[in-house]
Write a structure and sequence with these properties.
Keywords: Membrane, Transmembrane, Transmembrane helix. By secondary structure, the protein is mainly α. 76% of the residues lie in helices and 4% in strands. Helix 1 packs antiparallel against helix 2 and helix 2 packs antiparallel against helix 3.
Length: 101
């Protein structure tokens, strides 16, 4: 695992965490404005403000830990973990939220 790619990947993940935080705030506002939300839906939307960016930060930390422990190049697959979290969030918001009529 080359150090250069670990550093570049970590900076990209941290930058994406900031972007995803901003995007989740705006998406949550749009969803709250155009959908009928239950208490659970509101909790999911509110927690997404923190869970989505933290998934990027945790993936960066996991890759750094793998680098320090001498992990192989397959450790870079941890960078794909946040995208699955975002896919679950999009799936939830498209399938389970009822649009306002």
């Amino acid at each position: 695992m080359p150090l250069m790619w670990v550093v570049i990947g970590t900076f990209v993940q941290l930058g994406l965490a900031v972007y995803v935080f901003i995007a989740s705030v705006f998406a949550g506002g749009a969803i709250a404005q155009h959908h009928v939300l239950t208490d659970f839906d509101g909790k999911v939307i509110n927690s997404s403000f923190f869970v989505l960016p933290l998934s990027f930060v945790s993936a960066a930390i996991l890759v750094l830990i793998q680098y320090w422990r001498g992990g192989s190049g397959t450790s870079f697959w941890w960078y794909a973990l946040p995208w699955s979290v975002i896919a679950l969030y999009i799936f939830y918001s498209m399938v389970f939220l009822q649009p306002e009529t």
